[in-house]
Design a protein that fits this description.
With 300 residues, this protein is mostly helical. The chain is 74% helix and 3% strand. Strand 1 (226-229) and strand 2 (232-235) form a beta hairpin. The termini are far apart.
Length: 300
């Protein structure tokens, strides 16, 4: 029998291999380009230890207060996804304010909360229950209240109005680019309204956030990460995946191992999602710190 919830979960888990996990798996290349030093075995080993230390520090928050960590997941993702879109536009020559980043991060984080609150809270509950099996759901039940939906909707609308007003007054962005940004806003909102959260966020994470992230990172790194086609530089996807494979596999092993560690007797697709959300949140902290320094790399 066809189970759409299983399919939704599988689509989200596919981001482990399809752009999602791999997009952060070249952070070591990014780091050494930022500090302008060659990547030796010793330096790489120290980098990996420091990266894992930061990730483990934030992983510990889940065991201290999982519901605080779950909301930290939302706000950190809101910041980083908005940051990535802001940087992407900046390096395309479109000068936008931090409001644009706030708005673009809010779309994937807040839109499903308004239109798919039940499934949104379920995803959070899965992560929290992964740490606390007897968790009652009380810390996230309020998401389903009408008051919260209206409040978040007004917040999203207000942020959008400020964004569109500033965009209209922005003299450095050509008219065609402004129309494209607004079209992207509408397309993203529709995606996140009409599809279940695990599907829409999974598709967004892979084919919007991660793809743009990879494009900008590879263009900044240059060298083997880009290939010239018709006098235009493109991402060399073969070399990207080859470079990202070791740490992508390491990330997948962490997710599976953590799921087995917490629930050895009955591991299933939902326990994998809980593990994935927790590991992803932990890894996003060092990833965001490194990505914040991308401007220090000179254009190739």
């Amino acid at each position: 029998m066809f189970d759409f919830q299983i399919v939704s979960a599988a689509i989200f888990l596919a981001t482990l291999l399809v752009l999602g996990m791999p997009h952060g798996a070249i952070d070591h290349y990014l780091y050494f380009a930022i500090i302008k030093k060659t990547m030796s075995v010793r330096r790489l080993t120290l980098f990996v230890f420091a990266y894992i230390f930061v990730a483990l520090f934030f992983l510990s928050v889940w065991f201290i207060s999982p519901w605080v960590a779950a909301w930290g997941l939302i706000f950190l993702t809101w910041y980083h996804w908005g940051q990535a879109d802001l940087y992407y536009e900046k390096h395309r020559g479109t000068k936008l304010s931090f409001i644009f980043g706030l708005w673009r991060g809010a779309i994937p984080m807040l839109t499903p909360l308004i239109f798919n609150a039940k499934e949104y809270s379920r995803a959070l509950n899965e992560a929290i229950s992964f740490i606390e099996p007897n968790y009652s759901g009380i810390a996230t039940d309020w998401i389903n209240s009408h008051y919260v939906k209206v409040s978040v909707g007004l917040l999203l609308l207000l942020t959008g109005i400020i964004h569109w007003t500033l965009l209209r007054k922005n003299q450095t962005a050509i008219k065609q680019r402004k129309l494209k940004i607004i079209s992207e806003d509408i397309a993203l909102i529709c995606l996140l309204i009409f599809l279940p959260p695990l599907v829409s966020i999974g598709l967004y994470f892979s084919f919007w956030h991660s793809r743009r992230h990879i494009n900008l990172t590879c263009m900044k790194l240059g060298g083997n990460f880009v290939i010239e086609k018709n006098s235009v530089l493109k991402v060399n996807w073969f070399n990207f995946y080859k470079a990202s494979l070791p740490f992508t596999l390491a990330g997948i092993i962490f997710v599976v191992a953590f799921a087995l560690f917490r629930n050895l007797s009955s591991i299933d697709i939902y326990s994998l999602i809980g593990s994935y959300l927790i590991i992803l949140w932990s890894l996003t902290w060092p990833h965001t710190i490194i990505y914040s320094l991308i401007d220090k790399i000179k254009k190739s």
